Each structure stands twice: as structure tokens, then as C-alpha cells.
Description:
Layout: H1 21-32, E1 37-40, H2 47-61, E2 65-71, H3 80-97, H4 113-124, E3 127-133, H5 141-156, H6 158-161, E4 163-170, H7 174-179, E5 190-192, H8 198-212, H9 218-228, H10 232-246, H11 255-267, H12 272-282, H13 285-293, H14 304-311, E6 316-317, E7 323-324, H15 328-338, H16 346-349, H17 368-386, H18 394-411, E8 415-422, E9 425-433, E10 436-444, H19 447-464, E11 468-475, E12 482-488, E13 491-499
Parallel strand pairs: 1-4, 1-5, 2-3, 3-4, 10-11, 11-13
Antiparallel strand pairs: 6-7, 8-9, 9-10, 12-13
Helix pairs in contact: 1-2, 8-9, 10-11, 11-15, 12-15, 13-15
Amino acid sequence: xxxxxxxxxxxxxLNYYVPRTALVAEGLKxxxxxxxxxxxxxxxxxxxxxxxxxxxxIKKEKPNWLPVWISFEPYGTKTEREFLHSxxxxxxVFFHSRGIPLSIQPIDSIESIKDxxxxxxxxxxxxxxxxxxxxxxxxxxxxxxxxxxxxxxxYHLKREYGLRSVILxxxxxxxxxxxxxxxxxxxxxxxxxxxxxxxxxxxxxxxxERETGQLFENPVKEGIYEQTLGQPGLVNALARDLVxxxxxxxxxxxxxSLYTTxxxxxxxxxxxxxxxxxxxxxxxxxxxxxxxxxxxxxxKITQEDIGVLYANGVxxxxxxxxxxxxxxxxxxxxxxxxxxxxxGERRHFKSPIETYKKYLDERGLLDxxxxxxxxxxxxxxRGNIIFSQGKASEGVYHYNLDAFxxxxxxxxxxxxxxxxxxxxxxVDLLLLQAGKTDIIEIKRYDADQYEKSQGQLKAYLERSxxxxxxxxxxxxxxxxxxxxxxxxxxxxxxxxxIPVKRPVPSA
Length: 507
């Protein structure tokens, strides 16, 4: 039985997989044209798997080509001599693993790689294709410079030496390679490995369904796509957790299991995809906090911090031309990591002398209406501090309200989730209790959006089968809070307006 792959390149015999047929065809076309090109994709996006498919495609369709794949990831600060030792070893390991009766001879300079290319071409009558993965792993600038100089020379004599194509992949230094005026690589010869489409995610999950009989409910499939945006590493990781840990006996996978998995990935597990994003974000904490919690920040690829965060899959450019964090599960993880606006606030959320039981309904479950009145009292006292005199972004409101509800949820055996899939959409805040689901939409007040937001909330309720929900609008313009209960088409909408400009409390 095949499994979801979470630990490296996909093996089609052992793992479910997305074939990337169109992408492989694009790579074959460039190689056919003797083009040297780069592959752009953040880590865990399926680059290495793509190379495997490309190599298999070459073997099948172009037997007169000889593709060779090696990785520079462990090369570090190698000198020229050390580089040559590793390069020769890795090339020979590749030949041996594929049953190719070839070996690279000892060479005394990087420039002599040209002679080895020529010898291989003459011995095999095949054009060599050199695929270098993780080129940024070679950090010694002098050694990298010598290698790239040799590649440039080979490019100008590629037919004579039989080096049909060189394919490079990396993250941090690909831009510099492209911008080098003498480089054979340019922006026109770049292949971007995209995340899985919605259809590809559904197909990947369907492979498991067909082979095992275990089903994913449709909202779960949609939720996996929405929360990951199709990021290959995350898609496989969430699916594997669901089938192996949440439903190991083959039961149908329902939405509550997905909620638990999402919570585990942001609160409990050390997931390599999320850990990498947090590590990259920590390099530029101020700009990440600005994107999360402050006013819109224009996306400028030439700005170093923005360029690095983009290249590593942390941020992207939204339709308005601003920076944003496109993958919801990344965004939630970053919320939890940075938390600059709520540190120290928990002691103000709940008084030590009050019990959480005060906010329970007749069934013993947390009552959202009672809690929101308590939250309004908190904002009256602390809003001027937390919301910077009303200049905070929607992100601050999201996080603050989530932190507030989570404080009470801890005592009541409940769970809070932010930006959570529900009924074909993604709600801002979801409170999950035994036998009860509450959804809360959070907006920055805008008169034109007030009615539209109600329609959005009603649509969530209709698609999810719930009868009531809450819309909380934080206002910089109102002086007093307001609450309205609206009955419409069998749905109950609780509408809240919470002022955030408050006078500074007296000492």
C-alpha cells in the first residue's frame, strides 16, 4: 500500500504523487533547445521530485541524452580541491546508482570539468544534461565563481563539448546568477514549480481513497487545500497525519479531525515546513510583524528583506500590490510565534477572582454572547494600549480576540481556531466544543462593508448547516458599543460593533 510522502523525493511505487506532466514537458522543451535554465521554488515544493520525473521523461523519450542529478546542499565552504573531490564522488555515485558504466576521472581544476564533459560525450555518443540541485549550498564564493565561469565557457561551446543543458535550482542566490551580465541564465529561462492546484490536491487524496477505501469528507479535502494553498509538503503532511494518527483504522475522515490536525501542526508538532518558514521570518522580524499586524506594506522584490521572504515562500504579492502571507497555516503559525500585541494581556482577559463558569450556557458550554460582553469590558479598559489608539490592522483584532477566547477555552475543554475551513469558506475564528460549533467573523469597520459582511456570515452558516453566528466589527469611528440580533431566512446573526478608541484610564 502506498503512503503520503513527507520525507523526501516521491517514489511512485511507494507514494501517492502528482505527475506534473505539463511542467516536465516544459523542461523537456528547454533541453531540446539547448537552453540553460533555473528552477525557482521554495523548499519542500517538490523540486527534487520534479527532477526525478524530468529524468524519467528524458530516459523514456530521449535515449540519446544523459541526465545527471547531483546536489550542492552539503558543499558549504569547500575549497576548489575539496569541491572537485565531492563533485567527482557525487557524479560517480549517480552513475553507479543508475547502472551507467561511466566514471569521472580525477581532475585537478574546476575548468577541467569541460574535458570530462567532452570525454563522456565521445564515450557514450550522448549529450550530457547536468542538473545541480541546491546550488546555494556551495557558500565559498571563490569556488562558486570558478564553477559558474566554467559553466559560462561551456555554454558558448556547448555543442562542441556535448553539454546540452545545465539546470540550476536554489533560493537565495538564483537572482544573483540571473542578474550576472555574463550568465547563460536569464529570467526568460526560468521554470517556476507551483504549488498543487485544487484539482491536484483532490486527485492526490483520491488515490488514497481508491487504494484503501478510506474516504475524506469533501469539506476536509477543501480544507486541506485552503489551509495549505496546495503547498506539496504541507498537503502530504496533513493527509498523512489524518490517515495515520487521527483515523488509523480506516474510518471516514471528517472536519473535526482536520481541526485537530491543524491545531497540532501549529501548537504541538515540529513540522519541517512550518519550522523553515518561521526560521526565515525570524531573519526579518520587524517586516513580518508589519505585514501581520500593521498597515499594508507595498511589495517590492528589489527590497532585500521582501525578496528573501518571497523566495522562501513566506510572503507573496496580493492583488493590490501589497505583501501578504498566502498560506493560512503559515500565517497562523507566525501569529503564534510573534504575538507582539498580546504579550502580558492574559491576566487582563480573565479576573483571578471570577470563574469561567459565569460564561457557560444552560448546557454547560461557553456562551459566545456572554463572552463578547466580557470582551467589550476588557477593550474599554485596555483598548487604548492594545490597539494603539485605533490604528491597528485587522490582524491585531484577529489575534487579540483569538487570544481572549482561547483563555476561556482552556478551562472549558474547548478549542479556538483562526482562519479555519468551514462549509466551503474560511472563517476568521471558530470555537469548537462538544456538540457545538460557533463561528465569528472579524472585520475592521467600514460602513460599505457592514451589510456585505452580514451576507458573508449568512453564507457560511448556510453552507455549514449552522443556525447562528457572530459578526464582530472593530470601529475607529464609534464612541459606544452596539449589539443587534438579526433573524433572516432561518439564521440568527449576532452583530457587534466594538469601539477601539478609548480614553486612557486614570491611574
